[in-house]
Each structure stands twice: as C-alpha cells, then as structure tokens.
C-alpha cells in the first residue's frame, strides 16, 4: 500500500500542477467528475444501440426525431421551474433520487430488450421519464460543483465538468457500436443501468456542505421569472442567450438524425455509427481541453464568435459529404466548435450572474442548449425525409452577425 501510494501521489500531484487540471485537488470534485464520466459513458453506449434499434425497427427518420423530442420537451416546458426545485430542495438528494429513477427506467428497457419485447412506445415512455429527470439534474450538479470548487476555480471547473460528458462521447459510442454488432442491444442497456451506480455513489459520498437556496419565502412566480427577466434586461447575458439559442435551434438537431445519416448518407453499420459519434466526442473533448487551458485568458467572446461561424461552415459542408473519410473530420470540427461555444457561454453566464441566483440563471441560460432542439426536431426530420439524411438547416450569416454584436465589456471576464 505504502509502496504504491508514493508514485501515485506524485503522479496525481504532477497532474494537479497543470493550470487546467488544478481543480482536481478538490476531493468532491473528483468524486463528481469520475462518477459522471462513468454514468455518461453508459448512456452513450446505450444511445448507439437504441438509435440503431429504433431506425431498424421503424425505418423512419421521424421516429428518431420523436425519441429526441420526448426526451427534451420536458425541459422546454418545465425548465424554468427547475431552479425553484433546486433552490427549495437538498441538491445532493436530488442527485441521488434522479440517479435511482434513471437506473430503474433503464433496467426496465434492458429487461424488455433481453426478452425481445422492447417496443417503440416503451422507448418513448422511458425517454420522457429521462427528460423529466433532466429538468433538475444538470442544474443541481452544476450548482454543487460551484460550491465544491469555489469562485477561484470555477472558470476551470466548468469545462472540466463538461469534459466528463464529452470524454464519454469519445469512448462510449465506439464501445456501444462494437457491443451492438457483437451481442445485440440488450447488453448496451444493461451497461447503462449499471453505470448509474457511479454517480449515485458520488452523490452519497459528498462531504461538501451544499447550502439550500436562501430565498424560499419569495412567491414561486417571482422565482421562476427572476432569472429570465434579469437575463433579458442585461445586454451581455441577452446576447449570449440569443447566440446559444440560434446554434441550438439551427445546428444541434443534426445529431438526432445520426443513425439515418450513418446508414443512408454514409452507408455505415452500427459499428460505423459509433465511429461517427466518437468523432464528435473527440472533437468536443479537444475543445474542452483547449477551453480549460485558456480559461483565464480574455478570449471568451472571440471564442464564441469563431466557434459558431466554423460550426456552420462544417455542417454545411457535411450535408454534401458521402464518405466517412471526409465526414469524420467534419464531425470532429462540429464537436469542437459546439462545445467551445456552449461551455464558454456557460462560463460567462456563471461569472456574470450573482451567486445567490446561480440556480435560476443556470436553469434559464441552459435553456437554449437543452430546450431549443425540440422546436427544430420536427422540421429537421421532415427535411431529412424529403431529401438528404442531413438537414441543411444552419445559416452561417446570422451566427456571425450575432457574434459581432457581443459587447466588448465582457471580454475581460
């Protein structure tokens, strides 16, 4: 034990010496980080199997859109209420409860897949349950991280926290594609069910005291609209909100059609579908490392503008690509640019918002990235059905004009 602890401690201390990874000195952050990584990886493994299964079962691109719609519509409708719940309830208990609910729901689908009775309606029902959970889980987790690391390490913690999801996007889809091709979809559902144990353990083992919201006496309607009103009245927050909403509405929905893009446009099997998802994940992971490395530099507004423009250019090119050898680098670019824009915007939101209002602002300002896609899913699916698999729905010019309108006053935040 003593022999191994020395080298391991030195290696960990060396990693912590890197500016981008110094936040790992916080024990509870490490627990949350690794727990989320394992849980997200399981979800990505299931995503590949489920997408391939739905498209093979129905043969319809609109079915893929419906699954995404059911998983996101709760955030669109109930998102503003999530801040109220997060402020009024114990955030650690929220993480524990949501993990248990997701585990039970996944076990239900895994059992049905194992005995061959999994239907499209059951998948939609579980997607809806998962969407309901997502109205409170991300906001709870992000506000806990803010308490765990403190204000000094927040700028580095935001991209590193998001790295868990995008590292999972790198390895999870590849594993899911291989498992689906070799053993079928049921194994992937079971892998996801077991993975929730990690985040459940992390939530239980937290030592940081997470204080509840301090304004429970306010009317609920005031709590719901407080973050919205402040965001809209503040010119910097309003501009960032509109920029993120534009990319979410016109750019992100292509991901929901990935099984159709892989099968019809690129001619790939489930293993190839996993490669497509992994290319996006590798790009996103690279983007996160880049953003974390330069988190203290005054480049944030320029990062947002350049990332949005480049994303639109890559996605437009991807609409005319028929080979995986050309598509994979483009998937890498879209993953890099999307995460660079979203996480830089997330950091700016948290740095510009008053700490007592953190939950309200996170619920409000994360709305575009989680709630806009349902508005675009139907049209993108219809476009994909009538023409190419990839809906060419992104216009680059509105993105670049919105980026140019960002006020210079937040450049140094």
Tell me the layout of helices and strands.
Elements: H1 2-16, H2 27-58, H3 61-88, H4 91-115, H5 120-133, H6 137-149, H7 154-183, H8 185-205, H9 220-233, H10 235-250, H11 258-265, H12 270-293, H13 300-318, H14 324-352, H15 358-365, H16 367-371, H17 373-386, H18 396-404
Helix pairs in contact: 2-7, 2-8, 3-5, 3-9, 3-15, 3-17, 4-5, 4-6, 4-8, 6-7, 6-15, 7-8, 7-12, 7-14, 9-10, 9-15, 10-14, 10-18, 11-12, 12-14, 13-14, 13-18
What's the short story on this structure?
78% of the residues lie in helices and 0% in strands.
- Could you say what the CATH architecture is? Up-down Bundle
- Tally of structural domains: 1
Which runs of at least 5 residues are low in confidence (pLDDT < 50)? 378-397
String of helices and strands = HHHHHHHHHHHHHHHHHH
Rg over C-alpha atoms, rounded to the nearest angstrom? 21 Å
Protein described:
The chain has 413 residues and is mainly alpha-helical. The protein has one domain (23-410): MFS general substrate transporter like domains (Growth Hormone, Chain: A). 78% of the residues lie in helices and 0% in strands. The chain has 18 helices and no strands. The protein has helices at residues 2-16, 27-58, 61-88, 91-115, 120-133, 137-149, 154-183, 185-205, 220-233, 235-250, 258-265, 270-293, 300-318, 324-352, 358-365, 367-371, 373-386, 396-404. Helix 10 (235-250) runs antiparallel to helix 14 (324-352). The longest helix is centred in the N-terminal third of the chain and has 32 residues, at 27-58. The radius of gyration is 21 Å and the shape is globular. 55% of the residues are buried.
